[in-house]
Amino acid sequence: MVTIILTIHILISLAIVGLVLMQRSEGGGLGIGGGNNFMSARGTADFLTRTTTILAVAFFSTSIILAILAGTGVKKSSIADEVNNKIDTEQQLNDLQPSVPKEN
Predict the structure, then answer these.
(1) Cα three-residue angle 88-92-96, rounded to 5 degrees
(2) Which residue has the higher pLDDT, 43 or 29?
(3) Torsion 35-41-47-50 (CA) sign
(4) Residue 6 CA from chain centroid, whole number
(5) SS3 letters across 11-79
(6) Is the pLDDT of residue 38 over 90?
(7) Cβ atoms within 10 A of the Cβ of 12, count?
(8) Backbone torsion region of residue 86, taken as left when φ is above 0, otherwise alpha when ψ lies between -120 and 50, otherwise beta
(9) Closest CA relative to residue 46, chosen from 23, 63, 67, 69
(10) What does the alpha-carbon distance between residue 55 and residue 51 come to, in Å, rounded to a whole number?
């Protein structure tokens, strides 16, 4: 399950990088600058902006899902519990050791 979501997460991140690199650095998303492209500058910017937004939402969603899955199965304990367990273990070891009679 984690492997599938991680693979999707990586593919989404690569797609976001590609989309960001395809966008114009001259304020193409704002409609600034002329273009003699196949599509109008505004139409291309709207398409790239929408696609980037959708992929960003998917990226954050997969990030949250992966964080939740990483936390499952982890035993929650505190330092106080670990100290108490150590003290109990030491007491059990002391009880198991044979006592040597002391001569007066």
Answers:
(1) 170
(2) 43
(3) positive
(4) 9
(5) HHHHHHHHHHHHCCCCCHHHCCCCCCCCCCHHHHHHHHHHHHHHHHHHHHHHHHHHHHHHHCCCCCCCH
(6) no
(7) 20
(8) alpha
(9) 23
(10) 6
Q: Are 59 and 13 in contact (CB under 8 A)?
A: yes
Percent of the chain with pLDDT over 70: 60
Q: Which residue has the higher pLDDT, 52 or 29?
A: 52
Identity of residue 70: A
pTM > 0.70: yes or no: no
3-state class of 94 per DSSP?
A: helix
The type of residue at 10 is I
